[in-house]
Amino acid sequence: TEHARRAGDSLLERRLRRVLAGTALNGPMAAAEVIGLCEALIGRSEGDRKTEAQILRFLARAHAMRGDFDLARTEYRRARRDLEELGWTFDAAVTSLDSGPIELLAGDAAAAEAELRRDYETLDRLGERNYISTVAAVLAEALYRQGRDADAEAFATRSAEIAAPDDVVTQFLWRRVLAKVRARAGAINDAIILANEAVELTRQSDALIEQANALMDLAEVLTAAGSTAEADKARRRAIDLYGQKGDRASAAAARG
Question: Is the whole model's pTM more than 0.85, yes or no?
Fold first, then answer.
């Protein structure tokens, strides 16, 4: 944003604020600080509704981490509505990459599925082959949490088929889901391999939440394998990472 400002490109400067907000959300910055940053960036958006809507997605996710689910829902719904009104169909169709995880964090896997399936179908209709692999992976998680393992496996497999090899986020997301499906089916060795691969992939970034989520899934797989001591170790590490991020909701769920 600083380079855009120096170049006198105010439009680019506003649009790059969305990137700044997303980086803060997905990096190690504490959720409370992310909220402050997003609010400040929206305040400087100068009426650019697209920029405001995109930042609102990240602000909603940060509020959900703090347990403010009603506020988070209001924000992500407003973000989607504004993008749709402005005609930004693609941008509206990736809103579920935040609204889906928000609903999962709130414990409403069915609502998460509705958000993600709508966007998956829109992206498929548009012929999009980048973000759709990520949406498919998160949709697989929503289906898994409803006990619909066959559907979860189908979407995780679809994600694996179309995800770019260097799309690290999608690569660890589909592995996480498939590991749990395999564990529940009794294929423990395959499950452990996939879960460990997912953990290692998350370590390529500084995304504390994704590192913690992968550890929680590894703990679930290890529990299924009867390795309770190792599972507890992974779970404790995840709780520590949630604490560093200020993700109260995930930490509470992990303790539970």
Answer: yes
